[in-house]
Write a structure and sequence with these properties.
Order of helices and strands: HEEEEHEHEHEH
Shape: globular
Helix content: 25-40%
Structural class: alpha/beta
């Protein structure tokens, strides 16, 4: 079953949710099947799920970058994203997302389906700075970092 089919099934069974969720994903061996990417920066695709409109789309990184470039720094807010579900996020990226009012939740494993069910039950944990530092290769300061989030 494709990722989009799974998501559509989940969307048909939930009402009253006014959230737009983004999940960084990576393709699996099977066509049109994705799992959650290791971290926000290494994702080649992003799955955007609009619970209010009951729709979803999987966008390539280049499409996302073009939207970001045209949004004058609005980033995910340009896509009206409220929630980001990911496995890892760099502390500085977490701060930027938090400053923009985007809730960042830590995924449980790499299954999109499982994490959407956990999200709907409010069972995913908020990413905190401490959790972000523990789950990435970042140390205590950005000067020691080699990621692109600086």
């Amino acid at each position: 079953m494709t990722t989009e089919t799974i998501i559509q099934h989940i969307l048909t069974n939930c009402d009253g949710i006014n959230k737009k969720v983004c999940i960084p994903v990576k393709p699996e061996i099977e066509p049109k099947v994705y799992s959650i990417s290791n971290d926000l920066n290494s994702a080649s695709y992003y799955c955007i799920i609009d619970f209010q409109l009951k729709s979803s789309i999987i966008m390539h990184l280049k499409e996302i970058q073009e939207i970001f470039k045209q949004s004058n720094g609005a980033g995910f807010k340009a896509l009206n994203i409220n929630v980001l579900i990911c496995n890892e996020v760099a502390p500085m990226a977490l701060k930027i997302l938090d400053d923009k009012g985007i809730v960042v939740l830590k995924s449980e494993g790499f299954s999109i389906e499982q994490n959407l069910h956990l999200f709907l039950k409010n069972q995913l944990t908020d990413f905190t700075s401490a959790v972000a530092l523990q789950s990435t290769s970042c140390s205590s300061s950005c000067s020691s970092c080699n990621t692109a989030c600086k």
